Amino acid sequence: MLLGQVFQPTGPWAPWLLGLWVTAIGACIGSFLNVVIYRVPAGLSIVRPASRCPRCLHPIRGFDNVPILSWLVLRGRCRDCGAAISARYPLVEAAVASLFAILFAVEIVAGHADIWVALAEGPSVVQAAERWCLFALHSWLLTTLLAAVIIESDRQRIPLRLFAPLLLVRVLTLAIFPRVAGGDDPLALLGASALGGTLAWLSHRTAVRSIGLRGWMVVLVAVALAVGWQSMLIVTFVVAGGLAFARIEYHWRSRSSLPVLAWVFAGTLAAILGRVPVRGYLESPRQPQTSLHVFDAAAHCQRASSVSSPLEYSR
């Protein structure tokens, strides 16, 4: 009886189980991101050879390649030669897993995107699928930006081809679900691109360590197309404040402590996380506190039928 309640698609445990699965997927993607961060700037293939110890070149066994856990079990050392393994590997995996968990809570659970509830309670399956599509787009965006921030912190040139898959994913979302992030409004997309381009030019002119005008254009236009012009205003505010802080810091200390793309990442994360909770709070004046309990399945089911379109705010 208890197992039936746990694995029931619309049961109270369903969001937790799905959230754990999404978090595990995020940790695996974080493990792959470590490969991208190391190999792409060096011009190496991300497919071959398989992961191996950089000292003894012994291939890493499958059971030694489990995200986070393997590093803890091996105590941060290679099983074969005992060489130290940087703590950055599990930290990146944990960071990406946390991003996936947070986005799942904000955009799926609080965004009423449960497919099973949609079938049973009223909201269309298309709306739920659109929310999952938005979750995938934003997850890809933040993961790509995190990789770029770490590459920049390593004092390496950021390969712009890193953002090519993100732009491809955005094109696919426009083709399949045009309403995602205002994709059905050409003027909104044009305005977002223009805002991203303007911010790119200003960032190139004012940043202490610029990544080049072309680099700024690729990064910020990709962000603008993924979050929409309204959320891009938040990104602009955070990036402008960050660049101003970096300029002041450079004046007093002759150096900047943070990579410039860290401000783009922070602004993008703030824009994404600040959209759905505010909208949910405004649309439920009788029970504003329910927006805080993102895993409360009962509140989720009660409010699901009252939401007309989960993507209107994204435009």
What does the model show?
With 315 residues, the chain is mainly α. The chain has 13 helices and no strands. The chain has helices at residues 2-6, 14-39, 69-73, 88-109, 115-121, 125-153, 164-176, 186-206, 213-227, 229-253, 260-273, 276-283, 297-304. The longest helix has 29 residues, at 125-153.
Quick recap:
The chain is mainly alpha-helical.
Q: Overall 3D geometry?
A: globular
Distance N to C terminus? 44 Å
Largest sheet: none
How many E-type strands? 0
* Alpha-beta content class: mainly alpha
Strand composition percent: under 5%
Q: How many structural domains does the protein architecture include?
A: 1
Number of helices: 13
Q: What Rg do the Cα atoms give?
A: 21 Å
Sketch the topology as an H/E string, one letter per element. Answer: HHHHHHHHHHHHH
Mean pLDDT over all positions: 76
Report helical residue fraction.
55-70%
Unreliably modeled segments = 1-9, 113-122, 277-283, 286-302, 304-315
Keywords:
single chain; 315 residues; mainly alpha; 13 helices; 0% strand; globular; disordered C terminus
